[in-house]
Design a protein that fits this description.
Layout (H helix, E strand, L loop, with lengths): L1 H17 L2 H5 L2 E8 L7 E2 H13 L2 E14 L2 E12 L2 E13 L5 E8 L2 H6 L1
Parallel strand pairs: 1-6
Antiparallel strand pairs: 1-2, 3-4, 4-5, 5-6
Amino acid sequence: LRAAIERTIRTYAAAWTAHDRETWLNTFAEGATQEDPVGSGIRVGREEIGAFWDRAMGQYRSVEIVPRRIFVIGQEAAMTWTLNAISARGRRTIEGVDVFTLDEEARIVSVRAYWGSPSDRDAA
C-alpha cells in the first residue's frame, strides 16, 4: 500500500503540471474532502474539488507542483512541495506541505494544504 500511496501523490502533483483535470480528480475517493489552503473552507466531493481546480487553473498560464519529499505512515502521508507558476501577475514560487489520508485503494480521502503567508494566499 505504501508504494501505491506514493504513486497516487506523485500522480496528484504531476496532473497539475500536465493540466490534466480528470487524472487529478481520479486520485480522490468519492466524498473526499479538500482544504486548500487550511482555513479557507472545506470542499466536499469531486464536484466541489473540481470547481477548485477550475478556479485555480484559471489563474495560471502555467503551473508546476514539484514534490520535494513524501512521507507515508499507514494510510496517511505528507508531501513537501514547491509550486512554480506563471500568471498575469508574473512568476511565483510557493512552498508548502499537503497532508493526506488515503483509503485502501490508495485514493485520497482528505487533503489539507499548508502553504505560504496570508499575502501569498491573497495573491494566489
